[in-house]
Design brief:
With 262 residues, the protein is an alpha/beta fold. The protein is 45% helix and 19% strand. It has nine helices and seven strands, in the order ααβαβααββαβαβααβ. The protein has helices spanning 2-11, 19-32, 49-57, 73-85, 87-92, 132-142, 175-184, 198-216, 219-243; strands spanning 38-42, 61-68, 103-104, 117-123, 143-154, 187-193, 254-261. Strands 3-2-1-4-5-7-6 form a seven-stranded mixed sheet, with helices on both faces. Strand 4, helix 6 (132-142) and strand 5 form a beta-alpha-beta unit. The termini are far apart.
């Protein structure tokens, strides 16, 4: 328990490479999702972390269905085995045991009736979908009139998805895209939100680059980077935090869009 407390302290401090990015992401999620209620569908739910968090925070959620196009069984089994073998490493890497999905299905073809949900959610998913028109077509179909489609997706963020080829990382989106989708599918664009600018993006990309160098370099360079990385991570996170006291949204790490079905 003492080791877990120490690791949690590190993870929640600027020493941790993802500290600023995750801090900003949590703040944005809390802001965007503060009034969430009713029946929810989340696509690309992954390990179910968001479902667990939202069900704890929001008692007005009547039903929350977590879906993904794949059960990810092999990948999550590897993660679960890592947790079993090395709890300390798992905590540092923020591994969590996955929760059971409600349905395995594509976001482009949902097995639900029209006008079923109050909210359609996705977090860091849209960039991995080839046909974003089908995504919005299905999202619009399954939400009720007055229902919300909430999309969180990266903008200035590294390529990711199925290392090392990144075969399933297709797109990045900006304001114009969401205005276009709102017009095309007769949605009301309630909000495009971000709370990050160059500072968070600088910290996020620099720290991600350092992590990749630690993973991929020879042993001597690994040791050199490992020794200095806590200082470097702390420096980039604190500089990023100061810069983003007044974030320049043209350099945002990610965007959040809230669209409403008319």
């Amino acid at each position: 328990h003492m080791i877990k407390k120490i690791i949690n302290l590190i993870i929640n401090s600027p020493l941790y490479p993802h500290w600023l990015e995750w801090k900003k992401s949590r703040e944005a999620n809390n802001y965007i999702l503060k009034s969430i209620h009713g029946r929810i569908i989340e696509v690309g739910a992954g390990d179910g972390t968001m479902k667990s968090e939202l069900l704890k925070k929001h008692k007005n959620i009547k039903e929350y269905l977590a879906t993904d196009y794949s059960s990810w069984d092999k990948e999550f089994e590897k993660i679960n085995q890592t947790i079993i073998r090395s709890k300390i490493l798992a905590l540092f890497l923020s591994y969590r045991k996955r929760i059971k999905l409600n349905n395995i299905c594509s976001a482009e073809k949902l097995p639900y009736k029209d006008n079923t949900f109050d909210y359609h959610l996705s977090f860091e998913v849209l960039e991995h979908i080839q046909n974003h028109d089908k995504y919005f077509e299905e999202a619009t179909r399954v939400v009720k009139r007055g229902g919300k489609i909430i999309v969180a997706c990266p903008f200035l963020f590294r390529m990711h998805g199925v290392e090392p080829d990144h075969k399933f990382d297709y797109f990045r989106y900006t304001n114009g895209f969401f205005y276009g989708m709102a017009e095309k599918y007769n949605l009301k664009l309630n909000k495009i939100y971000n709370n990050t600018g160059f500072g968070t993006t600088f910290a996020s990309l620099t720290n991600q680059w350092l992590i990749q160098r630690i993973k991929e370099s020879n042993i001597l360079f690994k040791l050199f980077i490992l020794v200095f990385s806590p200082f470097l991570f702390t420096f980039t996170n604190l500089i990023g935090l100061l810069i983003d006291l007044n974030p320049d949204k043209r350099f945002a790490t990610r965007f959040y869009a809230v669209l409403e079905k008319k």
